[in-house]
């Protein structure tokens, strides 16, 4: 049996993005099964890790393009592993994560989504289950969200073929400039509040939102927003830390808060 029904072009597109795959699972049978299923993609390297701790160390060394992580029954806390990965300095911190577990409850699925997992797959899984997840993470990329409370792929587009409960939050209006401006400014506000408690992630979030706000400013042709976003970007790119840089960041943030609507002033992302 061939993945993707033998569609050579699709196989090539997927294969290019999954040459290094890490499997964090205490059961070695999972890595063997994935090795067998991924064989038609050709040349895929599988890096097994029996614990989350060893998986994290291996991720630094192997720089995987795709990560499968167990959660629950085997003793591997896939949620904690994913949250740590997303907030790390590893090159692969944005790599797609597919969580595999026999505990396919609504609580587990939403927990995976909120930890920064890309896809959720119920055990035992078959080739078709795997195909759907591989297609989702390689051919249907999701925007990356760099906030403070959350780091990972856009949760509004999270989907699981296993979940049969109430539908997830729809994002029908989430790509308008107004919606993007609102979300970016709420993340900036949240990051400002975390400059002392979580400075590394706060600056990451500010840098990412500065780029997003510039894109929004260009889309709506608002030069003041573009200028304010560029000023914030320059400040976040500095390697210098300390009170002076913090003061400058606060000034840049305050300048952007003038673009925040009244409905967002009491909210933070």
UniProtKB/TrEMBL annotation:
Phosphoprotein is among the record's keywords: yes
SMART domains: REC
Keywords, comma-separated and alphabetical: Phosphoprotein
InterPro entries assigned: Bact_response_regulator, CheY-like_superfamily, Sig_transdc_resp-reg_receiver
The keyword Phosphoprotein is annotated on this UniProt entry: yes
Protein name according to UniProt: Two-component receiver protein CleD
GO BP field: phosphorelay signal transduction system
Response regulatory domain sequence ranges: 20-138
